[in-house]
Design a protein that fits this description.
Number of strands: 11
Distance between the termini: 40 Å
Helix content: under 10%
Shape: globular
Strand content: over 45%
Radius of gyration: 13 Å
Order of helices and strands: EEEEEEEEEEE
Structural class: mainly beta
Largest sheet: 7 strands, mixed
């Protein structure tokens, strides 16, 4: 059973930056797609970014494209989400997740991911 632990959230002014980290246990880290999702109060959990490294690709939600970057460090079993030009509407709890299996295309649905971290709060003030 993989364990995921996020860190790096906090309070930032609009236009600022944060980098979220997700430390994963397990030796098969590099085999699985890793994603970031977020959930704002009263809203459903939504896709933010995925690193489908077995396919050599990353994908982003339109709302964060050009501002957020997902990356990984295999040696540290860690996935990152660099968030720049933050907006108040980016305020949410951010979760990292590992895909349920090995996919032939980049998974992006919540149901495609079976292991989740506890979440980290990101608050962007205007």
């Amino acid at each position: 059973q993989v364990q995921l632990v996020e860190s790096g959230g906090g309070l930032v002014q609009a236009g600022g930056s944060l980098r979220l980290s997700c430390a994963a246990s397990g030796r098969t880290f590099s085999m699985y797609a890793m994603g970031w999702f977020r959930q704002a109060p009263g809203k459903e959990r939504e896709f933010v970014a995925v690193g489908w490294w077995s396919g050599g690709s990353t994908y982003y939600a339109d709302s964060v494209k050009g501002r957020f970057t997902i990356s990984r460090d295999n040696a540290k079993n860690t996935v990152y989400l660099q968030m720049n030009s933050l907006k108040p509407e980016d305020t949410a709890v951010y979760y990292c997740a590992r895909a349920r299996g090995i996919y032939g295309s980049a998974p992006r649905a919540v149901s495609d991911f079976g292991s989740w971290g506890q979440g980290t709060q990101v608050t962007v003030s205007s």
